[in-house]
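User: Need the bound-state model for 2-amino-3-ketobutyric acid:
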Amino acid sequence: MTKILVTGATGQIGSELTLVLREKHGGENVVAAGHKKSPHPRLAETGPFVTLDVTDRAQLEKVVREYSITEIYHLAAILSASGEQNPGLAWRVNMEGLYNVLEVAREAGISRIFWPSSIAVFGPKTPKENTPQDTILSPTTMYGITKVAGELLCEYYHRRYGLDVRGLRFPGIISSETPPGGGTTDYAVEIFYAAVRGEPYTCFVRPDTVLPMMYMPDCLKATLLLMEADPRCLRYRIYNVTGLSFSAEELAKEIQKRVPGFRVEYKPDFRQAIADSWPRTIDDSAARADWGWKPDYDLPKMVEAMLKALRRRKERGEL
Ligand code: AKB
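Assistant: Bound-state model below.
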């Protein structure tokens, strides 16, 4: 019987991934864990919810034992922009959290682990276009450093203890349910909220800033595809994946086609330097070849879907 623990379940990816996993495995078999005391009602009503600080190993061990957990999706993390504001916290949550998960998994004989890496593993010396799977990993942010160290740690636990850890180097994730918190790519989500609320948007990166992104349905699809893949097909533990790449201005224009009069101005802040250190486009051919990855959303399709979903939320009085 599969019993899953999702850490960071109240976050942008966790809040949607938990519901998809519950549909697949049954609500009672997917334990959502977050550090926030009050989760979204949908999370609390569809299965168990526990309050968990991933830096507390004893607490993690207790949850794994109590619910007889067999798989962990470890999503709890501090993202790039927050990590630059508080590097110590980013190190503690990202590194101690992952180490605790891997150690508890090893001791408890957990069969599989999912852990998200990020395009933040790349740095200014990495090729910016079609960034390859195997390339220079020399990030300049604390978040990126924890992701590179995390990838190496996952590979170590696989090689040394046979733990089946799998992960994806996620680009910026765009979604309509739970806003991201503290990332550099957050502008690509915030801009939609402003457009639907009828407010102007001040973008914190330059209009010509191009970053790799992915719409949430593609993010969920990639995660499930990777986790279901035959282990014999996996040449890597952690894969490059991407959905689409666009500049901040291209995104604004695509929204303006559908929201006439929507105003966007650009006031780059400290996050510009982070964005400038990351790739513009990603080569995810290894993921495509090994486990059949293919995104469904291009820019117009994603913008259409985001506006529709947020307008629905606004009608329900949620925005
Ligand atoms: C961030 O901007 O920090 C994240 C990421 C790309 O990992 N969205």
